[in-house]
Amino acid sequence: MNFQQQLERYPQNEIHERIATTTPAQIDLALQQQRLSVDDFSRLLSPNITDAQLEQMAAKAHKITQQRFGRTILLYAPIYLSNECFNGCKYCGFSADNHLSRKTLTMQEVEQEAKILRSHGFRHMLLLTGEAPKVAGIDYLENAVKIIKKYCGSISIEVFPMDIDGYQRMVDVGVDGLTVYQETYDSELYRQLHPYGPKSNYSYRLAAPERAGAAGMRKIGIGSLLGLGDSLSDVFYSGLHGLYLARKFWRSQVTLSFPRLCPAEGGFQPNSIVDDRQLTQFICALRLLLPDAGLILSTREKAALRNNLLPLGITQMSAGSSTSPGGYSEDSHDGEQFTTSDERSPSEVESYLKSRGYDPVWKDWDGAFLSKAN
């Protein structure tokens, strides 16, 4: 059974109703479980959770994270290689409908971005593009990875979905992680938000993490963009998706992100608002469901909130991020995908983590490990 088939067993209207009508007594029962069932997880997403129950869940999430990850936080930085895109996503700054400065980095510019990030200490880099494979496709990515891997030990990609052969090429050239957000698991809303372009294929995108797992990708990252649709069901489906991937591709580490919609070119307004309390609840519930998953919090969120959420399950953070191609070299916001909220430098984030007793990790993996093993 693939994940889409499993997903169809949980109709959205039923899931939303189950979560929304959960009682505090049912939440208490879920909190008593050592390992959550899917039903338990849905109960912990309920808006009817009390402050005392949320505090109890936060304490459990903190304890599990300490047991599984210690006090380490992996720091990473994104490199935007291209903002050219053929999609008409209604919420994204890179949408083909938006009139922004388009740019695809040359290999010389790619190297300059990598050098700058390395000088700040980063050894884990996330490469991003829009979806324009004819402009920045697999061949382009292979060349970029060959250059960047001289400056870091771990490379992940957040680009257009590929077939298994495409992901295998990425693994072979040195990529060890993939991030692909479904954005929303509501297939009808998805079609409305993605009216044209390759991203309009809901099923192909949904199956991308499975194709990456089949190709041997070491890290598989998923998530939904909170604010696009019904957040309760989207977080539930994200957890269900993570559970499916963790069981099927047990050699890979599953990571989850929970980005909230940020201001971007085009002025799209969220369909729902996820406040800080609710985001905290979602993070804690996901940690209880997936004790070994990496949970990622990016610079979309403000510094104060990221600081407060650290103990509750977060294992990876970006720092000093630019969301436009060439943004580190040019120190420019032109052509950015969205506006970041945490403007601290990498060294400031590192100093804060150390002041709280955390161990900032700039690299937790090196592709050379595999070549030595072979």
UniProtKB/TrEMBL annotation:
SMART domains: BATS (SM00876). Residues 319-354 are annotated as: Disordered. Residues 71-306 form the Radical SAM core domain. GO terms for molecular function: 4 iron, 4 sulfur cluster binding; iron ion binding; lyase activity. GO terms for biological process: thiamine biosynthetic process. SUPFAM superfamilies: Radical SAM enzymes. Keywords: 4Fe-4S, Iron, Iron-sulfur, Lyase, Metal-binding, S-adenosyl-L-methionine. This is Tyrosine lyase ThiH. It comes from Desulfuromusa kysingii.
